[in-house]
Specification:
Length: 124
């Protein structure tokens, strides 16, 4: 079975943010007949999607996510910091789920000399 690993940033009941690594299972699905089946996740309804670019040198100081959302990093590298003191870098091809809609949130900064381009998928 195929899987996709992603980083979740979430807030606990005290409003402190943390990291958790989770897995999405991909199962054979007749997704685009008559093409042969593809491995897919279970579908989930989304509210909106957009692309965003974090410029070189950009720092997003402590903030909760404005909406629960997937971030799919397309270019560059960034570092996330959470309330418990941990830091984690993510680069092109990585997937992050922002679930820290309450509390102090997280901090984000661009690493290196390439802007970070992201596809964001918002959930209600």
């Amino acid at each position: 079975m195929s899987t996709i690993e992603y980083l979740q940033i979430y807030s606990d009941t005290d409003g402190c943010s943390h990291f958790k690594t989770l897995i999405i299972d991909l199962k054979p699905n007749d997704y685009a007949p008559p093409a042969t089946p593809l491995n897919t996740s279970s579908p989930a309804a989304a509210e909106a999607s957009l692309f965003l670019e974090l410029p070189v040198g950009w720092v997003g100081d402590w903030h909760p996510t404005p909406v629960r959302q997937w971030l799919i990093i397309m270019t560059g590298e960034c570092e996330f910091a959470v309330g418990d003191g941990e830091r984690c870098r993510r680069k092109s091809g990585d997937v992050v789920m922002l679930d820290d809609t309450t509390g102090k949130g997280h901090c984000t900064r661009v690493i290196g000399d390439v802007p970070v381009r992201i596809a964001a998928i918002h959930f209600s």
